[in-house]
Amino acid sequence: MRLLTPRWWGRHALLVAAVLVLVRIGSWQWGKGDGDGRAWQHYGYAVQWWLFAGFAVFLWAKLVLDELDPGRVEARNQKADALPEVVQPQAPPPAEDDDDELAAYNRHLAWPAENARR
Fold first, then answer.
1. How far apart (Å, rounded) are the C-alpha atoms in residues 89 and 87?
2. How far apart are CA 48 and CA 52, in angstroms?
3. How far is CA 54 from CA 8, 16, 22, 26, in A?
4. Which of 24, 42, 80, 110 is positioned for an S-S bond with 33, CB 3.0–4.6 A?
5. Tens of pLDDT along the chain (118 residues)?
6. Are 26 and 50 in contact, with CB atoms under 8 Å apart?
7. In sequence order, what are the residues at sequence separation of 6 or more whose Cβ sits closer than 8 angstroms to the Cβ of residue 97?
8. Cα–Cα distance measured from residue 24 to residue 73, given in angstroms and rounded to the nearest whole number
9. Is the pTM for the entire model greater than 0.70?
């Protein structure tokens, strides 16, 4: 099975370690809120650590599903390729000024914008 290779054992171990550490930090933060005037802040941080642990499990599950069904990755990449290209509006050409030095500088700045797509 693909999920029992040494590379995946490392990923499984990393997930277990990360979840245990994040849950422990959340529990510590929850206990820190007892008898403190800032209890809600501690409780909020505790919930945040537990959400981080949940997110780690979510990412691990996504990796496992992608490994078991490579078609998911291909479909996701094809969907990303189908997105339309963003068209940037073009700046109006610089107005010709009475100042020759300023006009030359504006032409100098306009050249990279005109030749950027080549």
1. 6
2. 6
3. 19, 12, 9, 12
4. 42
5. 687 888 889 999 999 999 999 999 999 999 888 776 778 888 999 999 999 999 999 999 999 998 888 888 888 777 766 667 777 777 776 666 678 888 888 888 888 878 876 5
6. yes
7. 103, 106
8. 34
9. no
Residues 37, 39, 40, 45: what is their CA dihedral angle, to the nearest 10 degrees? 130
Is the dihedral angle over the CA atoms 2, 12, 9, 14 positive or is it negative?
positive
Q: How many residues does the chain have?
A: 118
Find the DSSP H helices in the chain.
6-32, 39-68, 70-81, 100-114
State both tokens at 31: 């206990």
Place of tokens 């979510």: 58
- CA angle, residues 14, 5, 9, in degrees to nearest 5: 15
Two tokens, residue 64: 């496992």
Amino acid making up residue 45: Y
